[in-house]
Amino acid sequence: MTGAAPAGIPLRQLLMSLGEPLVELQAAPAGLDVPVSDVAILDPEDPATAAPGELVLAIGARGRAALPALRAAGRARAAAVAVKLDAPGQADALREAATEAGVALLSVRRETRWEHLDALARAVLAGPDAPESVEPNVGDLFSLAQTTAALTGGIVSIEDTSSRVLAYSRSADSDEVDDLRRLSILGWQGPEPYLSKLREWGIFQHLRSSDTVIAVEPHPELGLRRRLAIGIRAGAQPLGTIWVQEGSQPLAPQAEQALVGAARVAAAQLVRRRREVSADVRLTQTLLTGLLEGSTGPQSLATHLGLNPHRPATVLGYATAGGQAVRAEVTGLISVHAAARHRGALLAPIDSRIYVLLPDLPPALPLSTVRDWALEVVAAARTHLGVELRAAIGSTVPGLAQVPDSRAQADRILDAMGRGGVVPEVAALLDVQAEVLVSEVLALLQERPGLRDPRLAALTDYDARHGTRLAESVLAWLDALGEVRVAAQSLHIHPNTLRYRVRRAEQLTGIDLAQPQQRLLAMLQLRLPSADQDN
């Protein structure tokens, strides 16, 4: 095959950054200088595809099930495929397939979480080409970790305030790495037994409250080597921690001074990262809200998030009677469930409702699948928050340009639910077409008194003044299609009593319920609340 190689970093550099704790090279038929330009996640339910220069993470495809991914990666000139192996013997068949396909094969440790490997690989790709640079102001935490390791002579990891690993330096000798570091990298977070010991020794309290370096003495019985640590802080706000583990050689004399400088650089980078993430979230919300409201075209959001504007999309709308605090909790719950079901789900609270845009949907996604997703959210809100949610499924539209139409349809259903006209807690228009249309006609009657029959208004006024139930009885009789016994039973009265009330209503108002038009208008107008009928 011919063509320019995609820009990126050499596979060799990516492997050096990822390190032995996470991945192991099984085959590299094209060598270690092939460029890696991107990371792609291949879900087991997706067709096996790849793009030039990609590191393909074959999630869920263990053993021979990864063969289609290897072949597709080879055809597309991808850089490498990463898989998990259930048994040692599986590697032989996969190595042979990788060699035949001409694509590198990486095996991933079973304990490693795919989302962590994805995040780490993307962070390495986003960093500078020279990770050993002593200029750590490039904004790359991995570069900073490597630089700090060079200055201190130790093995460095940078963690957030929840002890989640953000970046770490590579170690040439895995025997130098103690259990705490190895388990932290594999699990992307410090293991709880070790963390509890650090809390017991007062290490975390010091890191949260002080800008100075603290030493943690070795504890061979726990598998811990000596290490230094310093808190990363922005003023009084803790942002994380830098840890330097001692290897086979003592730390450099200037290790503590280097740590102080590294913590200040890391603080600036983390603050900047938070601001960038916050700005990106605000921009996404602005573009998404504009698209849902029809004030912004689809191309801006598609370009910003890399979406295909011509793939099917659906809008889900959620409503609850709770206040702002309740909506905040519900919004968090919906976001988690939506992301679990659809990787590209986007969420936008607008006024009292919460909308979820599902872009890039498969062309033949069944409505029942989306309904099941919405039902899960409604059930979770009731179980975990004690909140009653209503959910409406907008139409599936052919592209992002039609998203406002899908949102409008969801709003029509939610409006009808709010008026009490729709029984299901989750519904699409196909489920409740008649209920929605009747609800909208009633809303029109509420807004325009001139469309109402004054004789029916006089009937409800008579009931209000005399404590009678004539209007209710007429409506029950109409709903039962004139079946007196059925209507009387619904009101818990004798059939003769119902006949009397219907005749009395006709005598008082002059309406003629034998006329189809008058019956139709009575069925609608008598459904209005009494206050609206009398206006």
UniProtKB/TrEMBL annotation:
Give residue ranges for domain PucR C-terminal helix-turn-helix: 470-528
Q: Where is the CdaR GGDEF-like domain?
A: 300-415
Q: Which residues form a coiled coil?
A: none
What stretches pass through the bilayer?
none
Against InterPro entries, the record matches this protein to: CdaR-like_regulators (IPR051448), CdaR_GGDEF (IPR041522), PucR_C-HTH_dom (IPR025736), PucR_C-HTH_sf (IPR042070)
One of its Pfam families is HTH_30
Cited Gene3D superfamilies: PucR C-terminal helix-turn-helix domain
| Family (UniProt) | Belongs to the CdaR family.
Q: What is this protein called?
A: CdaR family transcriptional regulator
Which species? Answer: Kitasatospora viridis
